[in-house]
Design goal:
about 240 residues, mainly alpha, 11 helices
Length: about 240
């Protein structure tokens, strides 16, 4: 089973390198981290000189946006791979291999979680920003990482092919609204974004090291919310016969 998973990983890597869209989905988080490290200080000088606004004062927002974008981009990548394998009727073949349908689904859901955690940690290093302490960092990274399989499952459930998947990926852009709302909107209206799973992860990150009780409240709500959505989407995917 491990050998089959390794072969699939190598096949995925070759497919990503050949497809510009998939390759950009993989590289986008690292490019965003580079922009934060190199582009923001330059833009900050211009903004402060011309309009009197300091971008560096909003570093928590920029990092929260990067952290939420990382699993979403990886989720899109895995979702497109899932749809391509469905179009090529690879799922029927994989179902009779030692990996099996359950093993295949586990591979497709766990791999983006691991990649998301790794890319998020690399993102801190590339962006040159200090990460929160381990106690506050790992729950946030776990919650964020769960968004990668969530988006991949959404594409598998609601898209019938890669064309529909492309349209759905554009609609998924609403998930990028969460960091904006979580950071800039105050008062009761901000909770309207609570229907977006990314909202709880971003709120937890912004509260890390600031308010202990509030931080753990966001973690306590966010992780079960992500888990519930995952269970519902897996059931729908199985019911769809994928």
């Amino acid at each position: 089973m491990m050998r089959m998973a390794m072969r699939m990983s190598l096949g995925d890597a070759r497919q990503v390198v050949r497809d510009p869209v998939l390759l950009m989905s993989m590289l986008a988080p690292l490019l965003m981290a580079l922009v934060i490290r190199l582009g923001v200080p330059f833009a900050d000088g211009l903004a402060e000189e011309r309009i009197g606004i300091s971008l560096l004062g909003h570093e928590p927002f920029l990092i929260s946006f990067l952290l939420s974008a990382t699993p979403l981009m990886l989720g899109l990548l895995i979702g497109f791979l899932l749809l391509e394998e469905r179009d090529e009727e690879m799922l029927a073949y994989l179902a009779i291999t030692p990996l099996g349908k359950i093993g295949y689904l586990c591979y497709r859901l766990i791999s983006p979680v691991l990649l998301s955690v790794i890319f998020s940690l690399i993102g801190f290093l590339v962006a040159g920003v200090e990460a929160p302490d381990a106690l506050h960092l790992w729950p946030v990274l776990l919650m964020l990482a769960l968004e990668a399989p969530l988006l991949a499952l959404m594409m598998g459930v609601f898209a019938g092919n890669k064309v529909e998947g492309l349209a759905l990926s554009k609609a998924a852009g609403v998930l990028f609204v969460a960091p904006v709302v979580a950071y800039f909107v105050t008062g009761p209206w901000q909770w309207a974004a609570g229907v977006l799973p990314t909202f709880w992860a971003v709120k937890a990150f912004l509260a890390s090291g600031v308010g202990e009780s509030v931080y753990w409240l966001y973690i306590g709500v966010g992780i079960p919310f992500h888990a519930l959505l995952l269970v519902l989407l897996v059931k729908k995917l199985n019911a769809k016969g994928s």
